[in-house]
GEM interacting protein
Amino acid sequence: EADLTLFRCENGVEAALQYAKMWCRYAKDLLAWMEKRISLEQEFAKNVMKTAEGAKITVAQQELMPLQYIYTMALEQDIKNSVTSRRTNELLQSRCYQALA
Amino acid sequence: EADLTLFRCENGVEAALQYAKMWCRYAKDLLAWMEKRISLEQEFAKNVMKTAEGAKITVAQQELMPLQYIYTMALEQDIKNSVTSRRTNELLQSRCYQALA
Protein backbone atom coordinates (compact mmCIF):
# COMPACT_ATOMS: atom_id res chain seq x y z
CA GLU A 1 0.00 0.00 0.00
CA ALA A 2 2.81 2.42 0.92
CA ASP A 3 4.53 1.24 -2.24
CA LEU A 4 1.53 2.25 -4.34
CA THR A 5 1.26 5.66 -2.66
CA LEU A 6 4.92 6.33 -3.31
CA PHE A 7 4.60 5.12 -6.88
CA ARG A 8 1.72 7.54 -7.52
CA CYS A 9 3.52 10.56 -6.02
CA GLU A 10 5.68 12.82 -8.05
CA ASN A 11 9.31 11.84 -7.28
CA GLY A 12 7.95 8.89 -5.29
CA VAL A 13 10.64 6.48 -6.45
CA GLU A 14 13.36 9.03 -5.81
CA ALA A 15 11.99 9.66 -2.30
CA ALA A 16 11.96 5.93 -1.58
CA LEU A 17 15.53 5.55 -2.81
CA GLN A 18 16.61 8.57 -0.79
CA TYR A 19 15.06 7.11 2.35
CA ALA A 20 16.69 3.75 1.71
CA LYS A 21 20.05 5.50 1.39
CA MET A 22 19.52 7.38 4.65
CA TRP A 23 18.41 4.21 6.39
CA CYS A 24 21.59 2.53 5.20
CA ARG A 25 23.79 5.29 6.61
CA TYR A 26 21.87 5.23 9.89
CA ALA A 27 22.37 1.48 10.22
CA LYS A 28 26.06 1.84 9.38
CA ASP A 29 26.51 4.55 12.03
CA LEU A 30 24.80 2.43 14.66
CA LEU A 31 26.88 -0.61 13.75
CA ALA A 32 30.06 1.45 13.99
CA TRP A 33 29.04 2.52 17.49
CA MET A 34 28.15 -1.05 18.46
CA GLU A 35 31.49 -2.35 17.25
CA LYS A 36 33.40 0.36 19.09
CA ARG A 37 31.36 -0.20 22.26
CA ILE A 38 32.01 -3.95 22.22
CA SER A 39 35.71 -3.50 21.55
CA LEU A 40 35.97 -1.03 24.46
CA GLU A 41 34.37 -3.59 26.79
CA GLN A 42 36.68 -6.33 25.54
CA GLU A 43 39.77 -4.20 25.96
CA PHE A 44 38.70 -3.12 29.45
CA ALA A 45 38.02 -6.71 30.52
CA LYS A 46 41.38 -7.85 29.11
CA ASN A 47 43.28 -5.12 30.94
CA VAL A 48 41.47 -5.65 34.24
CA MET A 49 42.22 -9.37 34.03
CA LYS A 50 45.89 -8.81 33.23
CA THR A 51 46.25 -6.33 36.09
CA ALA A 52 44.45 -8.62 38.56
CA GLU A 53 46.52 -11.65 37.55
CA GLY A 54 49.75 -9.71 38.03
CA ALA A 55 48.64 -8.41 41.41
CA LYS A 56 47.46 -11.87 42.51
CA ILE A 57 50.88 -13.37 41.88
CA THR A 58 52.60 -10.53 43.73
CA VAL A 59 50.24 -10.78 46.70
CA ALA A 60 50.57 -14.59 46.84
CA GLN A 61 54.37 -14.36 46.97
CA GLN A 62 54.23 -12.72 50.38
CA GLU A 63 53.27 -14.29 53.66
CA LEU A 64 51.27 -13.32 56.72
CA MET A 65 50.25 -9.95 55.40
CA PRO A 66 47.16 -8.07 56.61
CA LEU A 67 43.95 -8.58 54.59
CA GLN A 68 45.78 -10.87 52.19
CA TYR A 69 42.80 -13.21 51.86
CA ILE A 70 40.40 -10.32 51.21
CA TYR A 71 42.61 -8.86 48.50
CA THR A 72 43.10 -12.25 46.88
CA MET A 73 39.33 -12.74 46.81
CA ALA A 74 38.83 -9.29 45.27
CA LEU A 75 41.42 -10.03 42.60
CA GLU A 76 39.85 -13.40 41.83
CA GLN A 77 36.46 -11.70 41.54
CA ASP A 78 37.97 -9.22 39.08
CA ILE A 79 39.28 -12.11 36.99
CA LYS A 80 35.94 -13.98 37.11
CA ASN A 81 33.99 -10.85 36.13
CA SER A 82 36.35 -10.18 33.26
CA VAL A 83 35.93 -13.71 31.93
CA THR A 84 32.13 -13.33 32.09
CA SER A 85 32.30 -9.92 30.44
CA ARG A 86 34.45 -11.19 27.60
CA ARG A 87 32.10 -14.11 26.99
CA THR A 88 29.05 -11.81 27.02
CA ASN A 89 30.69 -9.45 24.57
CA GLU A 90 31.66 -12.27 22.26
CA LEU A 91 27.99 -13.28 22.24
CA LEU A 92 26.91 -9.70 21.53
CA GLN A 93 29.49 -9.55 18.77
CA SER A 94 28.24 -12.71 17.05
CA ARG A 95 24.50 -12.47 17.75
CA CYS A 96 23.92 -8.71 17.41
CA TYR A 97 26.73 -7.08 15.53
CA GLN A 98 27.48 -9.79 12.98
CA ALA A 99 23.77 -10.54 12.51
CA LEU A 100 23.12 -6.92 11.51
CA ALA A 101 26.34 -6.20 9.63
CA GLU B 1 53.64 -7.32 74.62
CA ALA B 2 54.62 -8.45 71.12
CA ASP B 3 57.30 -5.77 71.27
CA LEU B 4 58.75 -7.31 74.45
CA THR B 5 58.66 -10.83 73.01
CA LEU B 6 60.49 -9.65 69.90
CA PHE B 7 62.97 -7.71 72.00
CA ARG B 8 63.78 -10.79 74.06
CA CYS B 9 64.27 -13.06 71.02
CA GLU B 10 67.57 -13.46 69.32
CA ASN B 11 67.42 -11.35 66.14
CA GLY B 12 64.06 -9.98 67.35
CA VAL B 13 64.76 -6.46 66.18
CA GLU B 14 66.02 -7.69 62.81
CA ALA B 15 62.89 -9.84 62.38
CA ALA B 16 60.66 -6.87 63.17
CA LEU B 17 62.51 -4.69 60.69
CA GLN B 18 62.34 -7.41 58.08
CA TYR B 19 58.60 -7.74 58.56
CA ALA B 20 58.15 -3.98 58.34
CA LYS B 21 60.06 -3.97 55.08
CA MET B 22 57.92 -6.78 53.65
CA TRP B 23 54.76 -5.03 54.82
CA CYS B 24 55.91 -1.91 53.02
CA ARG B 25 56.47 -3.76 49.77
CA TYR B 26 53.08 -5.49 50.09
CA ALA B 27 51.33 -2.15 50.59
CA LYS B 28 53.19 -0.67 47.65
CA ASP B 29 52.17 -3.58 45.39
CA LEU B 30 48.54 -3.25 46.41
CA LEU B 31 48.58 0.49 45.87
CA ALA B 32 50.07 0.01 42.42
CA TRP B 33 47.23 -2.38 41.58
CA MET B 34 44.65 0.03 42.99
CA GLU B 35 46.03 2.92 40.97
CA LYS B 36 46.08 0.87 37.78
CA ARG B 37 42.55 -0.44 38.42
CA ILE B 38 41.17 3.06 38.98
CA SER B 39 42.90 4.43 35.91
CA LEU B 40 41.49 1.58 33.78
CA GLU B 41 37.97 2.41 34.97
CA GLN B 42 38.49 6.10 34.28
CA GLU B 43 39.83 5.48 30.81
CA PHE B 44 37.00 3.07 30.01
CA ALA B 45 34.36 5.55 31.22
CA LYS B 46 35.98 8.36 29.22
CA ASN B 47 36.06 6.29 26.02
CA VAL B 48 32.49 5.02 26.41
CA MET B 49 31.29 8.58 26.95
CA LYS B 50 33.18 9.90 23.95
CA THR B 51 31.85 7.10 21.73
CA ALA B 52 28.26 7.57 22.96
CA GLU B 53 28.40 11.34 22.46
CA GLY B 54 29.66 10.91 18.90
CA ALA B 55 26.98 8.33 18.11
CA LYS B 56 24.26 10.49 19.71
CA ILE B 57 25.09 13.42 17.43
CA THR B 58 25.11 11.18 14.37
CA VAL B 59 21.81 9.54 15.29
CA ALA B 60 20.17 12.90 16.05
CA GLN B 61 21.14 14.30 12.63
CA GLN B 62 18.85 11.82 10.90
CA GLU B 63 15.07 11.83 10.85
CA LEU B 64 12.31 9.26 11.05
CA MET B 65 14.63 6.31 11.49
CA PRO B 66 13.56 3.04 13.15
CA LEU B 67 14.25 2.68 16.87
CA GLN B 68 15.85 6.11 16.94
CA TYR B 69 14.36 6.95 20.34
CA ILE B 70 15.51 3.64 21.84
CA TYR B 71 19.07 4.11 20.60
CA THR B 72 19.17 7.70 21.81
CA MET B 73 18.02 6.53 25.25
CA ALA B 74 20.67 3.81 25.30
CA LEU B 75 23.37 6.32 24.35
CA GLU B 76 22.20 8.76 27.01
CA GLN B 77 22.27 5.96 29.57
CA ASP B 78 25.85 5.18 28.54
CA ILE B 79 26.78 8.83 29.08
CA LYS B 80 25.03 8.97 32.47
CA ASN B 81 26.68 5.74 33.64
CA SER B 82 30.08 7.01 32.57
CA VAL B 83 29.63 10.25 34.50
CA THR B 84 28.65 8.26 37.62
CA SER B 85 31.57 5.89 37.14
CA ARG B 86 34.06 8.74 36.79
CA ARG B 87 32.74 10.40 39.94
CA THR B 88 32.88 7.13 41.89
CA ASN B 89 36.44 6.51 40.78
CA GLU B 90 37.50 10.02 41.69
CA LEU B 91 36.12 9.34 45.17
CA LEU B 92 37.99 6.01 45.35
CA GLN B 93 41.12 7.78 44.19
CA SER B 94 40.94 10.47 46.88
CA ARG B 95 39.45 8.47 49.77
CA CYS B 96 41.18 5.11 49.31
CA TYR B 97 44.24 5.46 47.19
CA GLN B 98 45.50 8.83 48.34
CA ALA B 99 44.62 8.06 51.96
CA LEU B 100 46.83 4.96 51.89
CA ALA B 101 49.62 6.25 49.66
